[in-house]
Design goal:
eleven-stranded mixed β-sheet; globular; 31 helices; 797 residues; four-stranded mixed β-sheet
């Protein structure tokens, strides 16, 4: 199954094999090492590199201890571990493992054995990635010679090396030599695996990219359409399943989807007519490259609401909760399997395995019931690309959508208006964008109690590169939906600067913090809403109905804490957690108190015409209360408290909100409402306001995208829109921002959440009592995510 790319079917068999080996032979037997290696290989193919790493490392230790350092199986484990390091860019860690594996294989099998060829090919890959072409070439040629002699001219392993040598020739500009190699590799893969295998997609992509370089754009587009269709179909087939790897595997195909966008763009520049279909094609395939877990959460939330009330909706929620639970349990099992023998807890592992088996059976029952009673569920719950025409039908006259897709050296930008759409390509890619965003975020980080200098020059340069190309199509737009990618997920675009700062001031420009009030911020021009995916707009405006909750507002905050009153609402979670994910409640209790948060919630309640009875504050603001179901009645829900970042933990590693800790911490209530606990809440909220720090951050797992932590969890729980923050929030500024925002919307119910936030920001910038509030540190951290438009915007009457 694994060789055929049927990873979803292979995974449970790999795990069962490992469990049998451990039970029969013991945790340190070579069969266990081999089973660990096989499971790790599966995870590597699915892009789950961090989960694979401890499995490879444990496998190598077991096999080397049992068989000796020169054994062939040890060489295989080292080779695969090096492949995983290479996939993560850890080249210095990979090279010595490849060298050891090559030495062992040559010693065990001889220099002409097919296993020796594997390591030669992989080491050559590493050299090619480092542009060490002269070292890579003879290794590829030797691997091809070995495999042709040992395996024959049509073996799939030969197809790998032939393709790789073609990549080397293409990198060197030797295109005439590269083309026949790519064609041969494609022919081998198609014959060995059939037309729908991931390896075939890779071969198609390689040849397409060569034709693009050669200017053969029609041929390039035809080939890459086939390649991206393979991964698109795989994502559709796996969507909604319980297995944890489908979204990650789709992420590994991002270069193929972006190559498709590139080919469509190249052909678009040559075409004299038929432009609209090509733009729409690029828009849809671009969405496959932008898949996010937060976007998936919105789609699944909307699927629940589409089921209506009653038994069917309860069954949908039960199925989705079971999937969430399965993934968490699966993650615990995988972590346990990667621990060395001395750290294993066999009783606990057996309990996890038993629980997983029970959940497996329950999931099958729920899936079968839904397939019978709700046949549209799978399509609603799985993110699928949305056409430009469908998006245009969901936009108001004064709205626009901007979607970004970031590649290595290129960024694609789609701008969609109700009656127009276009695509732009800018030569400004991932690394450059990351440097710019990192530099701008340094300008909103307080150090030693002083307000930092914000780099308006860089903010203007970034505005010119990533916003100006689309802006000529924004005439008349007041509200702009932004679908960010890569580093843009951690930057509110409102901090970009729309005019060149005065040159005469040079580096001294705006050293005085009060001068920031005069800066032409992009936030002055547009009200902006963040969407985690393009499909989220369809889910929110076409599928999801408005809240039916009975209470206009519920506020939770001002937890009872004993620390000295603080001015910020954030802290690193790492030092608070004890073992097994239960917080040390005494450390939680020592966090700074936040008395201003009570005033903030009272003002929010007043702006919505309700009294203090809508608030749960102080000692009452506990996890137990939040989990009691009381929030299900709130249309607008606000948390005003500390927001905690995920840390490097032995126990729990996910973001959380601080509530009043109990006398003794338990897994049900330890004073920290984590993202996974939020996801278990049942909400029917139009808006959740998180007046806390870093609530737009990732969930703490390696490579996770923005909004994958608390934001994703609240969407999954049942909120249509969120107010979240991108950096630590200064308390008094947060109070002014959130209260003015709700008051503005109460006075002008015809405006949307994004415009209400924009007006609140502008008012804070203009605060005469505290002119330093003009610095983006104070006014810019919050963004609206989800539905930020005016009531009824884009919805068909």
């Amino acid at each position: 199954y694994q060789t055929q790319g049927r990873y979803t079917e292979a995974e449970p068999l790999n795990k069962r094999s490992l469990a049998i080996a451990e039970k029969v032979d013991g945790p340190d037997h070579p069969t266990v090492g081999l089973a660990l290696n096989n499971l790790a290989e599966l995870y590597r193919h699915r892009g789950r590199y961090a989960e694979a790493t401890p499995l490879y490392e444990r496998a190598s230790v077991i096999l080397e201890a049992a068989l000796g350092s020169d054994h062939a199986e040890v060489a295989s484990a080292l080779n695969n571990q090096a492949l995983n390091y290479t996939s993560q860019g850890r080249y210095d860690d990979a090279e010595p493992l490849y060298q050891r594996a090559l030495e062992s294989r040559e010693k065990a099998f001889g220099p002409s054995h097919s296993s020796t060829g594997i390591t030669l090919n992989n080491l050559a890959d590493l050299y090619q990635l480092q542009a060490r072409y002269d070292e890579a070439r003879p290794l590829y040629e030797r691997a091809i010679e070995i495999w042709e002699a040992a395996l024959g001219p049509e073996h799939p392993r030969l197809g790998i090396a032939v393709n790789n040598l073609g990549l080397l020739h293409r990198a060197e500009g030797r295109y005439t030599e590269a083309e026949p190699l790519f064609k041969r590799g494609l022919a081998i893969d198609e014959k060995a695996f059939g037309p729908d295998h991931p390896g075939v997609a890779t071969s198609l992509n390689n040849l397409s990219e060569l034709y693009g370089v050669l200017g053969r754009h029609r041929a390039a587009l035809d080939l890459i359409r086939r390649a991206s269709a393979i991964y698109r179909e795989r994502s559709v087939r796996s969507a909604g399943l319980r297995f944890a790897g489908e979204l990650r595997e789709q992420g590994t195909a991002k270069p193929i989807f972006l190559r498709h966008v590139q080919a469509a763009f190249d052909f678009l520049e040559l075409a004299s007519d038929g432009l609209a279909p090509l733009i729409s094609e690029s828009f849809e395939v671009g969405q496959m490259a932008l898949a996010t877990s937060a976007g998936t959460a919105i789609d699944r939330m909307s699927a629940r609401f589409a089921a209506g009330d009653g038994v069917l909706a309860d069954r949908v929620r039960a199925h989705q909760d079971a999937v969430q639970r399965w993934r968490r349990l699966d993650g615990e099992v995988v972590k346990a399997m990667g621990r060395p023998a001395a750290a294993r807890e066999t009783t606990e592992e057996a309990r996890l395995h038993d629980e997983l088996e029970v959940l497996d059976r329950r999931l099958k029952e729920l899936s079968d019931d839904l397939a019978k009673d709700f046949p549209d569920y799978a399509e609603l719950a799985a993110p699928r690309p949305v056409s430009i025409a469908e998006i245009q039908g969901l936009l108001g006259d004064d709205e626009a959508l901007l979607a970004y897709a970031v590649w290595d050296k290129t960024t694609f930008i789609w701008v969609v208006r109700k009656d127009y759409a276009e695509i732009h390509r800018v030569e400004y890619g991932g690394a450059s964008l990351a440097r710019a965003v990192t530099a701008l975020r340094r300008g909103v980080r307080i150090e030693e109690g002083s307000i930092p200098r914000f780099d308006t020059e860089r903010a203007y340069d970034l505005y010119r590169k990533i916003f100006v190309p689309a802006e000529r199509r924004l005439a008349g737009a007041r509200h702009v939906f932004v679908v960010p990618d890569s580093a843009l997920q951690s930057l509110p675009l409102g901090v970009l600067v729309t005019k060149q700062p005065p040159e005469k001031e040079g580096m001294d420009f705006l050293i005085d913090s009060t001068d920031y009030r005069q800066v032409p911020w992009l936030a002055r021009k547009y009200a902006m809403t963040t969407l985690p995916s393009v499909s989220a707009l369809r889910a929110l405006r076409k599928v999801t109905k408005g809240s039916a909750a009975s209470k206009p507002f519920i506020g939770i905050g001002d937890p009872k804490l004993d620390g000295e009153t603080g001015s910020g609402r954030g802290i690193d979670i790492a030092e608070l957690l004890a073992t097994r994910g239960v917080a040390d409640v005494e450390l939680v209790r020592e966090l700074p108190s936040l008395p201003d948060s009570a005033d903030e919630l009272m003002a929010l309640a007043k702006s919505l015409g309700v009294g203090d009875e809508a608030l749960t504050l102080g000692s009452e603001a506990t996890e137990t209360w939040v989990k009691s179901g009381a929030l299900a009645d709130g249309r607008v829900i606000a948390f005003a408290t500390h927001g905690l970042l995920a840390g490097e933990l032995k126990g729990l590693a996910e973001p959380a909100l601080v509530l009043t800790p109990p006398a003794k911490g338990t897994s049900h209530d330890d004073g920290l409402l984590t993202a996974s606990e939020v996801a278990q809440l049942k909400l029917d909220a139009d808006w959740v306001i998180l007046s806390a720090c870093n609530t737009a951050a990732a969930d703490g797992t390696p490579g996770a995208e923005g909004l994958s932590g608390l934001a994703k969890a609240f969407f999954y729980a049942g909120s249509r829109a969120l107010l979240v923050s991108h950096w630590p929030v200064e308390t008094s500024a947060a109070v002014k921002l959130t209260t003015a925002m709700l008051a503005e919307r109460a006075r002008n119910p015809e405006i949307g959440r994004a415009e209400a936030l924009q007006r609140s920001m502008l008012a804070l910038m203009a605060d005469d009592e505290k002119p330093f509030y003009g610095h983006p540190l104070f006014w810019a951290p919050f963004v609206v995510v989800g539905e930020g438009g005016a009531p009824g915007a884009g919805r068909k009457k």
